[in-house]
Fold these 2 entries.
Entry 1:
Amino acid sequence: MAHPRPKLEVAFFRAESGAEPVRLWLRALPKCDRRAIGRQIRTVQFGWPVGMPVVRKLKESLWEIRLHLDRRTARVIFTVVDSVAILVHGFIKKGRKISKPDLAVARQRARALRAAGPY
């Protein structure tokens, strides 16, 4: 039996230095958290478009994947370019809203992607 095809491919944002900040952030998390985040990313990948409570639209072509981990809340912010969800920022939320610095990082990385041309 054929496996279902994902509606979106998933890729990590890559800085000019070659570093993949979201991948590095994920690797620093406990294994159980990485698994939970991976499941939620797959939900987006195979079920796109996905709405609340899993995904919330932000500004400037950005979406956040919302996760509730053990006593913590995590977010993975992504943008979509040509059917590819590019994970631009991941973090553990510390307040009720996304902090301005976290949102600024995501916006800057998304702008860098678009300025660089086709992904």
Note: Helices lie at 21-28, 31-47, 100-116.
Entry 2:
Amino acid sequence: MITGMDARRTWLVTGAAGFIGSHLVEQLLLAGQRVVGVDNFSTGLRENLDLVRGAVSAERGSLFSFFEQDIRDRDGISELVSRSKPDVILHQAALGSVPRSIEDPLSSHESNVDGFINMLDAARKVGVQRVVYASSSSVYGDIGDGAKVEDRLGAALSPYAATKRIGEIYAQVYGRTYGLETVGLRYFNVFGPRQDPNGPYAAVIPRWLAAMAKKNPTAIYGDGSGSRDFCYITNVVQANLLAASVPSSSAAIHSVVNIGCGATTTLMQLQQLLRRHIARVVGCQVDQIPEPALEPIRQGDVPHSLADISFARESLGYNPTHSVEQGIAELVQFELAKTA
């Protein structure tokens, strides 16, 4: 059991109907915690909340309260935080996607910067103990191809990256000025069940899985040699709960921490992993699943992304339980079982 989870606390999870948020809500309820969820359904899905309720007992489900609320609504968020009086906030709400931010930078700013500072300010007014918030590996920008270390940043390559970096700065300022404990988690390419495969801004793994399971063609932006540190959702849930529970003396407090696996997978390797596991589950030959088409690299994409997770290990006790292949195997089994 993670330290601090033996006593019941009240947790506010923003983006509760989203991919990561819904997994956090589920694990907190399974641990007997009181959870308040917030989402405006701009990208979150009501289906995810139904899945959470179906995964926990009625007794545990009664510990969950949900509010449809937009974090950009300053007064609304302030009132909700004041009313719920959470001990901890896990802030996952954001408008994700680099391409989306390039198409519509103002909406990304409103959700990721204005919405986040609304949450920070509501938290400090009520006296919330700690805010753990989702940042992104995109803040590293053009730093280079080596393992990314928290204190070395390059130039931001997209409005999305800029919004996440601004959020980190605000969190640290609120820590220094008001004493609000914050921990930022720089996620590296999170994947897992409940990740939406639909729409123009869908992440690569759910999009590819949905297409390949139907033996439809897929595309790689670039020549396939680009690499990412893909991190399974179970690892990310662990990181959030650890960040919420470590002592106030931890070096992670008022800082940012890389959350990945510390290993890279090229996009072509990812394709082969998916093809192999999909073929195994559906009972077909690997070569029956089409090879990907190659398309030009998208604006704002970086060629390589790898997390140095030594600070996460030292400051949080973080230890990834799932490798990329273990996560892919679990994900494919889960997703294709739904359509069997």
Note: The mean pLDDT is 93.
